[in-house]
Specification:
This protein is about 35% helix and about 20% strand. By secondary structure, it is an alpha/beta fold. Strand 10 and strand 11 form a beta hairpin. Helix 17 packs across helix 18. The chain is built from 25 helices and 31 strands. The chain binds one RNA strand through helix 7, strand 11, strand 15, helix 11 and strand 25.
RNA sequence: GCCGAUGUGGCGAAAUUGGUAGACGCACCAGACUCAAAAUCUGGCGUGGUUCACCCCACGUGCCGGUUCGACUCCGGCCAUCGGCACCA
């Protein structure tokens, strides 16, 4: 029979839609499963082959869960605000809303053609005012709790996109999106205090089932360091300089201090060489943060003349420097320099002839090279710490500092607050109004959504203002507080805003009273399984966890964490092994694949191509291999015979396969699950017939991967109801083992024979058979047998001398 | 520099976590079918040696060493590739 995949796939997609096959019900009596994949950004290029990889994986789990009796929520939506759409709109003079609609329609159609079991009734779109009403609402809650604030800060500014960027969006000094040059620019920006949640974002990872890689990357990004703050008196004044150090034990080795050029205290100090300092500050300000970190080989700096500090533990007077190797944005913007045990301080000390004092024992001369290998060691030149082990010395020093009010234990994070303003059109308007009298005033919640006004031109302005600034009719408003004339905020939100909570809206997408119904949230949260790309680990994943924790704190959501489990798929590379990109000309269009081989083949190939979490190159030859397999599957209809129990000669193979496929799907080892099904079909074809019971199990196991062809076969074979409504097959552990076993026999670790024994044979049984074997006798005759080892059902080993 | 991952046939890979290395698929080779080709089916397919052939033997999972009856798997030391972070005190 001909495998007419186009016809079959269309037929079943229509039936599923008509029957609302994958609708999630609010049936609280059933256990729930909430499966999620990152909703796509509907770009003009259409669906990428990477999308189906993630989607199919969770689709497989979702389909399996339904058959296991779960109430499954597997939704889809659109993360549609963002720069590419806006840039496309500017270039082609089409309104971004229209571009978005076109792209969404295309994406939806493409996704439907692949047969994902999404509940399409729950579609969300971040650019829909009914949706972003709640994005704005969340912002207002953040504002009320003091977690959103406006600050004049140097931001990363992309000279090409003309937009401010979060630290996370700057890659090697360039804009993450366009690769344009990023410079520092001081602007008044809305900021979100993600740093207030740093500790919890770090610690609560312990309660999740995220894959280890994701946890580690998040922890590194949050960058927790335990240490101490230490106060240094500025000699002859009452002023103090506070530094942060992770190595309080090395305080006796601090021979000078360094301040960042931006340090506030510099304004008030009585510096003799003020001009020199000013010149250095100006120089540093010109450089971008990237340039400052790039030029890290050569240390520069200026010593403050006429100002010194006192080392609090030994009373020594030490000089103070400014240098751009000290960052204003981390710790206190000031450090104590311990050149003997820090590479950077050492390089600086060498260049400017500062004294180097070794305080921890170790090999090598600290005058030649800093001794930084000081996790262990004994204190020296350190007064009351002398002779202590490093670990104890840190503790003792911190205790000493606290007792004498010279400092205290302190934990610092690398994570910085989230720059939330964008000077762009295509984003959620920030629902704030600036009044001369009242300052920043939030819009009343009832007035939301604050809709994005229609604009003729949405090109960024040259002065770095948002295009909304040109819409004076919209900008000019009245103060919600006092009624006086006021101006709206013209910056918009970053596109991370809409994606930071979308999974909440899926639970109750049409609710116009609240973000989502409490009972429903209680039932559906948390998300049981979330799959997505590693590239979102430090951006989307962290931001959405932050918002979720905030919503938890104000009683909106019932769980501390949004995602119970997070997994990550490997990238699909072009057939040349390089990243797929238009410029490399190695892009595969999923539509082509569906036209030529069908959606089931596409789905199956993407699951079969390699380990799920690893990158793998595209191979059209292998796509054909999967197609051939599905043809073979379809041809099982030609050899179908009656039978309502597994036949004796296939029983073991089937039980084995049920076990393997069930386990492998759960572990996302889709490639080996499929290989298992291939093995089974090879065995069936060797036999030349399959009975109905066997077919039923076979197509049920394959269904999550290839839902269309299997549903069609289900109908053709005359099984009752629909395959998507059936239950997942069970296996009998006892029947997964063959009745006779092939036991390899090794002598001194080398395979010498394979013997057959019955299932459940004892070591004595195996020994008996083994020593009847000619090969074995050949190698054991006349030798002393030292040892015999039997690993049940695995291997039999003889050691001879 | 730091953190993480990876390294196995011509290629994508697998190995129940210490127990027959290379399952499954691709490519390739041979045969069948065909006037022929495609498709399909059957068989072969790590390297080397030996043999008419079946058999058999040795070697083989990035490199060096170790533990073990037995190592892709564990331990120690390197090398390479790819990600992420990077003057974070």
């Amino acid at each position: 029979m001909d495998y007419k995949f186009t016809e079959i796939e269309k037929k079943w997609q229509d039936i599923w839609e008509k029957e609302q096959a994958f609708k999630a019900t609010n049936d609280f009596t059933k256990p729930k499963f909430y499966g999620l994949i990152e909703f796509p950004y509907p770009s003009g290029n259409g669906l990428h082959v990477g999308h189906p990889k993630s989607n199919t994986a969770i689709d497989i789990i979702s389909r399996k869960r339904r058959m296991e009796g779960y109430n499954v929520l597997y939704p889809m939506g659109w993360d549609a605000f963002g720069l590419p759409t806006e840039n496309f709109a500017i270039k082609n003079k089409i309104h971004p809303a229209i571009v978005t609609k076109q792209n969404v329609d295309r994406f939806r159609e493409q996704l439907k053609k692949i047969g994902f079991s999404f509940d399409w009734d729950r579609e969300v779109d971040t650019t829909d005012p009914k949706y972003y009403r709640w994005t704005q609402w969340i912002f207002l809650q953040l504002y009320k709790k003091g977690l959103a604030y406006k600050a004049e800060i140097p931001i990363n500014f992309c000279t090409s996109c003309k937009v401010g960027l979060a630290n996370e969006e700057v890659v090697n000094g360039a804009c993450e999106r366009c690769g344009g040059e990023v410079v520092q620019k001081v602007k008044s920006q809305w900021m979100l205090k993600i740093t207030e949640y740093a500790e919890r974002l770090y610690d609560d990872l312990d309660d999740t089932d995220f894959i280890e890689k994701v946890k580690i990357q998040q922890r590194n990004w949050i960058g927790k360091s335990k240490g101490a703050e230490v106060k240094f008196k500025i000699t002859g004044t009452d002023e103090e300089l506070v530094v942060f150090t992770t190595r309080a034990d090395t305080l006796f080795g601090a021979t000078y201090m360094v301040l960042s050029p931006e340090h506030k205290v510099l304004e008030t100090l009585n510096i003799e060489n003020r001009d020199e300092v000013k010149a250095y500050q100006a120089e540093a300000a010109k450089k971008s943060e990237f340039e400052r970190t790039e030029m890290n080989k050569d240390k520069t700096g200026v010593m403050l003349n006429g100002v010194t500090a006192t080392n609090p533990v030994n009373g020594k007077e030490i000089p103070i420097w400014i240098s751009d190797y000290v960052l204003a944005s981390y710790g206190t913007g000031a450090i104590m320099a311990v050149p003997a045990h820090d590479d950077r301080d050492w390089a600086f000390a060498k260049k400017f002839n500062m004294p180097i004092i070794q305080v921890i024992t170790g090999e090598g001369d600290v005058n030649e090279k800093a001794n930084v290998d000081v996790e262990t060691g004994t204190m020296m030149n350190s007064g009351f710490l002398d002779g202590l082990e490093v670990k104890d010395a840190i503790e003792k020093m911190i205790a000493y500092l606290e007792e004498n009010n010279l400092g205290k234990a302190k934990t610092n994070f690398k994570l910085r607050d989230w720059v939330f303003s964008r000077q762009r059109y295509w984003g959620e308007p920030i629902p704030m109004v600036h009044c001369e009298k009242c300052g920043w005033v939030p819009l009343p919640e009832e007035s939301l959504p604050l809709e994005l006004p229609y604009a003729e031109s949405y090109e960024p302005t040259d002065n770095g203002e948002s295009p909304l600034a040109n819409l004076t009719d919209w900008v000019n408003t009245t103060c919600p507080h006092c009624g006086a004339p006021a101006k709206r905020e013209t910056d918009t939100m970053p596109n991370w805003a809409g994606s930071s909570w979308y999974f909440i809206r899926y639970i109750d997408p049409h609710n116009d009273k609240e973000i989502a119904d409490k009972e429903l949230l209680k039932y559906w949260m948390p998300i049981d399984w979330y799959n997505g790309g590693m590239e979102h680990t430090t951006l989307h994943l962290l931001y959405s966890r932050f918002w979720h924790k905030f919503l938890y704190d104000i009683g909106v959501v019932p769980t501390k964490e949004p995602y119970q489990k997070r997994t990550s798929h490997g990238m699909i590379l072009g057939s040349n092994g390089e990243k797929m990109s238009k410029s490399r000309g190695n892009v595969i269009n999923p539509d082509d694949m569906i036209d030529r081989y069908g959606a089931d083949t596409l789905r199956m190939y993407e699951m079969f191509m390699g380990a799920f979490d690893q990158a793998a190159p595209w191979s059209e030859q292998s796509v054909k291999g999967c197609f051939r397999f599905l043809e073979k599957v379809y041809n099982l209809m030609d050899i179908l015979v009656d039978g309502d129990a597994y036949s004796a000669d296939l029983e073991t193979a089937i039980h084995k396969t049920i076990k393997k496929v069930s386990n492998d799907y759960e572990k996302m080892k889709f490639n080996t699950a499929i290989a298992g099904l291939m093995e089974l079909i090879n065995e069936i074809n060797k036999k030349g017939e399959i009975n109905k019971a066997e077919l039923k199990t076979f197509i049920t196991l394959l269904n999550p991967v290839a839902p269309h062809i299997t549903e069609e076969m289900w109908e053709q074979a005359g099984f009752e109801g629909r395959l998507y409504q059936t239950t997942w097959p069970e296996f009998d552990e006892a029947k997964t083992v063959d009745s006779t076993l092939e036991i390899p026999v090794q002598i001194n670790g080398k395979l010498r024979a394979v013997v057959n024994v019955a299932k459940g044979a004892s070591a004595e049984d195996v020994e008996k058979v083994a020593f009847e074997n000619e090969e074995i006798l050949k190698f054991t005759e006349g030798k002393e047998i030292v040892k015999k080892i039997y690993v049940p059902e695995r291997i039999y080993t003889i050691v001879v001398k």
